[in-house]
Design goal:
By secondary structure, the chain is an all-alpha fold. Helix content is 75%, strand content 0%. It contains 17 helices and no strands. α4 packs antiparallel against α5. About 7% of the residues have low confidence. One of its GO terms (molecular function) is protein O-acetylglucosaminyltransferase activity. One of its GO terms (biological process) is protein O-linked glycosylation. InterPro entries: OGT, TPR-like_helical_dom_sf, TPR_rpt. Keywords: TPR repeat.
């Protein structure tokens, strides 16, 4: 059992595989060769937005390009073009676009956020923090920037400040399940286990039903020594065997070697693949019993 897991940024954008160059070219050519009815810049932008929301980043990028051909001075669409590149993993190209926007309009808050996201991905965390702080200074409604600031404070193990940033993000975007999960992880790490449980449940109520959240919830229940609740959560986050192994680790950490041994033996019985891990944990348990 390990520390609760944090989701960095927007999962729909940070966990999408890049489309290979050859595929991107094929997509581009297939769209360009179709005889589409003449549409205006706003309609191309809306098409791009729809594709971006579905994670089709390079197809979205092409629609934004089409929009800019109709209206080349639309900075908002320029930003969206950079966001599409960033979502598809083309950080350097996105960064160039955000920089050009800021040269034209230094107070464009979303471009500062975009720069922050690039620097965050590049692990330039100090610069990213400055970017996000500038973004929310210019536009206090940029909830994603607050969420990233929470991530950055988590890195520094400054969990109280992380929680503060997550709470601010959630006042603007209350249904962001991954932020509820992140706040729960920060609360857990600061020892506020009951509050952590509430945050993990809120993440689940926000339709963020990932195995990650259930495992985090299980860890919080173990810390509260609510083992039946923990077992149920761990099962939803993995398998029955992994759940018993995790509960065993919890019992062992809390000094109950008898219960820990029972759980490790149950994990071994349920799944041969857990034999090595659970058996190692069982040996640790036996040593503590001596």
């Amino acid at each position: 059992m390990v520390e609760p897991r944090v989701t960095y940024g927007n999962p729909s954008q940070d966990h999408i595989r890049d489309i290979p160059q050859v595929r991107y070219k094929a997509l581009s050519e297939s769209i360009e060769n179709k005889q589409l009815p003449e549409i205006n810049a706003d309609e191309y932008e809306k098409l791009g937005d729809a594709l971006l929301s579905k994670g089709k980043y390079f197809m979205a990028y092409m629609q934004y390009e089409n929009s800019l051909k109709k209206n080349k001075d639309n900075i908002r669409v320029e930003y969206k073009k950079g966001a599409a590149l960033l979502g598809g993993g083309r950080n350097e190209e996105a960064q160039k676009i955000f920089k050009l926007i800021l040269q034209k309009q230094p107070d464009f808050a979303l471009a500062h956020e975009g720069m922050g996201r690039v620097n965050f991905k590049n692990k330039s965390y100090h610069i990213a923090k400055l970017n996000f702080e500038k973004a929310v200074d210019l536009n206090p409604l940029l909830w994603r920037s607050y969420a990233y600031l929470g991530n950055l404070y988590d890195f520094k193990k400054d969990y109280d400040l992380a929680v503060k940033e997550y709470k601010t993000a959630l006042t603007i975007k209350p249904d962001a399940g991954y932020i509820h999960n992140n706040m729960g992880a920060s609360l857990y790490m600061s020892g506020r286990y009951k509050n952590a449980v509430d945050s993990f449940y809120q993440a689940l109520r926000s339709n963020y039903n990932s195995k990650k959240v259930y495992n985090n919830l299980g860890r919080a229940f173990v810390a509260l020594e609510l083992y039946d609740n923990a077992l149920e959560a761990f099962e939803k986050g993995g398998t029955k065997a992994s759940a018993y192994n995790n509960i065993g680790v919890g019992y062992l950490k809390n000094g109950n070697t008898t219960k820990a041994a029972e759980c490790f033996e149950k994990a071994i019985e349920l799944s041969p693949r857990f034999y090595v891990l659970a058996n190692e944990n069982l040996k640790k348990c036996r040593l503590k019993q001596q």
